Amino acid sequence: MMEIENGFLYQQECEIVVIGDIEVPDSKWLNLILEENSSNSALDDETCLSLDLVVTAPDNGSVRLCGPRPRFDGTSKDMKSNISASGGRKQRSDAVLLLGLTLTCQDLGHIIIKTVKFRIHEKSQISEEQATAMNQRVASMYITFNVPHVIMKSMRGRNERRFISLSSKMLPPSTQLLLMLMRSDWDFLDATISASNNLKIGEMNRCQRRPSLFPSKLLLNEVYPRIRSAASLDLEIAQELKSRLDPGKGTLDSLPKDILEHHIAVFLRARSLDSLRRTCKSIHRNLSSVVPGMSLNLYDHQVKSLGWMRYRETQSISEGDLISTTSRRVHCMDGDPHRSASGGASTLLLDRIEGAKAIHISQFDGEEVVLQRDNPLTAMVARGGLLCDDPGLGKTITVLSLILQTFGLSTSLAHDEAKETTIHDKKNIEKASDQLIFEEYWNENLVPRDRISFMLSFLMDLSRDNRFTFGYFELPIDPIRDGCPDYYEVIKDPLCFKAIRQKVNDGEYSHFADFERDIEKVLENDLKYYPPGDEVHEAGLKLRESFRRITKKLKAKTIKTAKKSFSRAGAKPNSRVAALVEKNRRKKLKDSLTPSSSTLLVVPGVLLEHWEEQLSLHVDLKYCTCKTPIVFEYRGTNKCELKMEQILAQCDVGKTHFPLLFIDKTGTRKLPPPNFLSKFSVVLTTNQRFTNEWKNGSLEDELNRKQGDTKLFQEDDEEPCTLLKVNWLRMVVDEGHSMGRGTDNSAISFASWIHAERRWVMTGTPTRQTLSQTGLVSIRHLLHYLGHTFFSRRQNGDTLWSNLVTKGWNRGYLASFYRIQALLSLLMVRHTKMDIEELPPPQYQTTVLPMSKEEVTTYNTLVCAVQSNLLITSMEGRTSGAQDSLLDKSQSRHAKRALENVRLVCAGGTQVLPTLDHKNWTEFIRDIELCNPPPENLAAVKQYLSRAVTGGLSACGSCGMMLSTLLVFPCGDLVCTECADRDSRECVVCSKPFDVDLFQRLQPGMLYEWLHNVEEELKKKKNKGVGTSVSSVNVEDSIATLDGGAGVMAPLDPTQPRRRSRKPGDGHACLYSPKTTNGECILCWKQHESCNFMTSSSQCNECFQRAEDCPESETKSFHVVTNLLGLYTQQQNRGQQIASPSSIEIQLATRRPLKAIVFSQFRKVLNMAGDRLLRRFGGGCIAEYWGSFRRKELSRFIHDDTCFCMLLGKDGSEGLDLSFVTHIFFMEEVWDKSLQEQAVARAWRMGAKGSVVVETLVAQNSVEETMAEMEKGSYNPELTIDRGSDLAGAAKQSKLKSSEYQRAKLQYLLKGLALVTNQYTSSFGVNKRPTPIASSISEPLAKKQRLLDRRVRFQE
Question: Which stretches of sequence are listed as region Disordered (predicted)?
Answer without folding.
Answer: 67-87, 1046-1067
